[in-house]
Specification:
Layout lengths: L5 H5 L16 H10 L4 H14 L2 H8 L3 E9 L8 E5 L5 E6 L2 E2 L8 H14 L8 H22 L4 E5 L13 E6 L6 H7 L4 E2 L12 H18 L12 H20 L9 E2 L5 H4 L7 H9 L17 H7 L3 E2 L5
Parallel strand pairs: 3-6, 8-9
Antiparallel strand pairs: 1-2, 1-5, 2-3, 4-7, 5-6
Helix pairs in contact: 2-3, 5-9, 7-8
């Protein structure tokens, strides 16, 4: 049987070592390349190895951020878990909380205003705000759809599974430690793609380069294609979408997001508020003026940063935004 979600993994080709354009290389590497007349093949591998040994801590941190493959993981039952965030026991017995890359399931554990606001945004995204006659019933209905995603994840991970993780911090909330990961079942199918294909999650959230070399944008686009197919088929949450109301609901969410950012931009941050850009939670990043959820995710995707000016490489942060944010940013030395 062909699993549509498998295409997300198969569509990424095996990475090849190739020579980057000299303008994109660190100064030390550019000097070495010029001296070696653009080496290729084994010569390029040898040169790159020598350069990595000479690069400063930023280069070493990037190398350390490579994905680790951990096989034989098992799911740890937890009342607080949901479809995209759950407890995992590693083969050695240690436990970690995993947050899936690239997807977002409906919240069904709503304990504070932040959770409630997030669920409201999710309901608007899927066009299910009016799925039931009254607001309370519609909210309960959405939570039940979130529980379906949680049950789907538990069934998907009933056998030992594999995670790919660099242990990047995935905390949306400073109270809870989580790490981002790609998760694959015993047959090699991608859990994130599985949830999106069944209409139980949206293609939304932090992504990154996969272990097979596919870019974060490629992975995100593959999930978006699966979401489009699920929506067209009317499966999962999409079976309850009010298509006539959906554009208005999404516009309302965008308007509310702008209002929230305007309120933050009006000076409601505590005096001396500063965030460390390599470790700040998404919630803290979103407190910065002009930083919404999508931009906060792009900031997280680009970690680690060696210097604050590296933020200019994030799509959506230009010189004006950078200079506005700079007084509220700091960076710890990368070890």
């Amino acid at each position: 049987m062909n699993h549509p979600e498998s295409a997300v993994v198969r569509s990424v080709s095996t990475p090849r070592l190739s020579m980057p354009a000299p303008g994109r290389l660190p100064a030390l590497l550019r000097r070495l390349v010029a001296r070696h007349d653009r080496p290729r093949g084994a010569a390029w591998v040898a040169l790159l190895s020598a350069v990595l040994l000479a690069l400063p801590s930023a280069g070493l941190a990037a190398a350390a951020a490579e994905l680790q493959v951990i096989e034989g993981c098992t799911l740890v039952p937890a009342d607080w878990a949901d479809g995209d965030s759950f407890r995992v026991r590693l083969p050695a017995g240690d436990e970690i909380t995993v947050r899936l890359y690239g997807v977002d399931c409906l919240e069904h554990h709503v304990s504070d205003e932040t959770d409630a606001r997030r669920l409201r945004g999710q309901r608007r995204y899927f066009g299910i705000t009016r799925a039931k006659p009254d607001a309370e019933a519609a909210i309960d209905f959405a939570k039940n759809l979130g529980r379906r995603a949680t049950a789907e994840t538990r069934a998907f991970l009933v056998k030992p599974f594999t995670i790919h993780t660099s242990f990047a911090d995935a905390r949306g909330d400073a109270r809870f430690k989580r790490v981002y990961a790609f998760v694959f079942d015993a047959a090699g199918h991608d859990l994130a793609a599985h949830l999106v294909s069944r209409g139980l999650a949206r293609a939304f959230g932090v992504s990154r380069t996969t272990r097979t070399g596919g870019s974060a944008d490629d992975y995100r686009a593959a999930l978006a294609d699966l979401e489009l197919r699920a929506a067209a088929a009317g499966v999962g949450i999409w079976a309850h979408t009010d298509w006539d109301a959906l554009p208005g609901e999404r516009q309302l969410e965008r308007d509310d997001e702008r209002d929230l950012q305007a309120a933050v931009g009006d000076g409601r941050l505590p005096e001396g508020f500063v965030v460390e850009i390599n470790s700040a939670t998404m919630a803290d990043l979103m407190r910065l003026p002009g930083i919404g959820e999508a931009l906060a995710e792009r900031i997280i995707e680009k970690r680690p940063y060696a210097r604050i000016t590296d933020l200019l490489e994030v799509d959506g942060i230009g010189p004006a935004t950078y200079h506005r944010l700079k007084p509220m940013l700091r960076i710890e030395p990368i070890r």
